[in-house]
Amino acid sequence: MRAISHAGAPEPDLTQWIVNRARALALVVLILTSALQFATPARAKSRPLAGVNIAGGEFGVAPGVYGKDYTYPSVAELNYARNKGFSIIRAPFLWERLQPRLDKGLDPAELARLKLLVDETRARGMTIILDAHN
């Protein structure tokens, strides 16, 4: 039996909601990390694994306006972190920006921003951890 929300519309089945959310998250992880290089013993010997959190993507209320309400690490910030010896970047983001409507597709512009961040981080020989906030 499905519960009725305050707006009068049926609420999605919790199990189905969890399955859909897990599938969407798995897809995002697969897309954004498909070619991600992970630390290996050889890499660890050449460069110590040290990380930094660069906040911004988790700020504000979703959806917000990119560049005003929230942002992602810039090329200058990535270069600064790299030059200071960091090899891992943690980049938080709001899931609601990536998937604005429950059980619907991902926002192409937001996905492109995250993919660009992954590409720019990898181009500097660094690893990125995408941290989905809700």
Care to describe what's here?
This protein is of the alpha/beta class. The chain is built from five helices and three strands. The chain has helices at 14-33, 41-46, 75-83, 95-98, 108-123; strands spanning 51-53, 88-94, 127-133. Strands 1-2-3 form a three-stranded parallel β-sheet. Helix 3 links the parallel strand 1 (51-53) and strand 2 (88-94). Helix 1 (14-33) runs parallel beside helix 5. The longest helix is centred in the first third of the chain and has 20 residues, at 14-33. It starts with 13 loop residues before the first helix and ends with a strand. The relative contact order is 0.19.
Dominant shape: globular
What fraction of residues sit in β-strands? 5-15%
Number of strands: 3
Total of DSSP H or I helical runs spanning 4+ residues: 5
The strands making up the biggest β-sheet line up spatially as 1-2-3
- Terminal residue distance: 27 Å
Task: List unreliable stretches of 5+ residues.
Answer: 37-44
Helical content class: 40-55%
Oligomerization category of the chains in this entry: single chain
Main sheet record: 3 strands, parallel
Mean pLDDT: 80
Radius of gyration: 17 Å
Structural class: alpha/beta
The arrangement of helices and strands along the chain is HHEHEHHE
